[in-house]
Amino acid sequence: MYDVRRIDRITALGASAWNALLASRHPFLQHGFLAALEASASAAPEHGWQPAHLLLYDEQETLAAAAPLYSKSHSFGEFVFDFAWANAYRQLGLNYYPKLLNAVPFTPVVGPRLLARDAPARAALARQLAALADGRKHSSLHSLFAGTEDRQALAQAGASLRRDCHYRWYNRGYRDFDDFLAALTAKRRKNIRRERRRMHEAGVHVEVRSPHELTTALQKTLYAFYARTYAVRGQAPYLTPAFFAELHSRMPDQVLYFIAMHHAQPVGMAFMLVDDTTLYGRHWGCAEDYHSLHFETCYYAGIEYCIRHGLCCFDAGAQGEHKLHRGFEPVATWSAHVMAEPQLAAAVADFNSREAALMADYQAQQSTHTSFSATQGAAPAPRTP
Description:
Elements: E1 3-7, H1 15-19, H2 31-39, E2 49-51, E3 53-57, E4 63-67, E5 70-72, H3 83-91, E6 99-102, E7 115-116, H4 119-132, E8 140-143, H5 148-156, E9 160-170, H6 177-182, H7 186-201, E10 204-209, H8 216-231, H9 241-250, E11 255-262, E12 265-274, E13 278-286, H10 293-309, E14 313-315, E15 329-339, H11 342-367
Parallel strand pairs: 6-8, 13-14
Antiparallel strand pairs: 1-3, 2-5, 3-4, 4-7, 5-6, 8-15, 9-14, 9-15, 10-11, 11-12, 12-13
């Protein structure tokens, strides 16, 4: 038996206890990343993110399992879209919000969602999470971008699985960027070289810097680039300036900035994180639109970094069929959903089943349009997280 507890801020638990449940340095489930989101008021009650993290302790008062958990009053910042489900609840005269979200705020990256020291603890945590969607305080539970073991445990606890398709780049042991290009079709190779040449001819190059290499003025400039990406869509940025400062303080060795420089002047940036195997592209922004600047800063410089540092995978973010033309490949991602209302639970399960078949066909179709030459085939993918 486990003692079940809830905490309303991640710092109510020590970083060492939380991180001890992680099997890798996956950055987004690190205590420091979640703490930076909360301490900076990026994921905070006033913005519809009420932390309600779930903890399981054994009889020796040792933490056996934990899950990042939020009570949500909206569906923004999630990247798995359930607005139609909320509308269905409303049509039945039911409240969809608040709902429970087992996820990393603003982060469509596959990874651990149920942190557990062993399989029994993971199964117990999944059951506890599913039970929280009781229809009284919360309408539903949603675990987004869950890794294989976690989504299986949630499915066994009664969750319905929903499939999507994202794109990743895999390292086949390339010696350098030209070696990577040699694996592509002539058309794709020519296109990438043309895009990179535009940057070179414009006097733009990319520098990779860690937090301690940024001046205060440069940090403000990079944040302005990030905020502009949202401003052009008429939105406020999800992450506050304090988030980046908090993250620099808490886990500086896993943060990287890919800064596009026009001679000595910064004109764009990609904010990324890294662990022992994977580079994660998260946010991008620029001072003004340059042709091919996004591709150079967010994709090609990242691929070069992975090759140079022996990383096996580059996850450059959600969406983007255009990534196929630049050496990325389609992969399945999954979320798990528990609906308290029986009628809607059945409807959602049926929808997820039909959508999954369509997404499988879509991924298979996308796989026929990768940039690799016929002699290369598809890149062997590492084990799914």
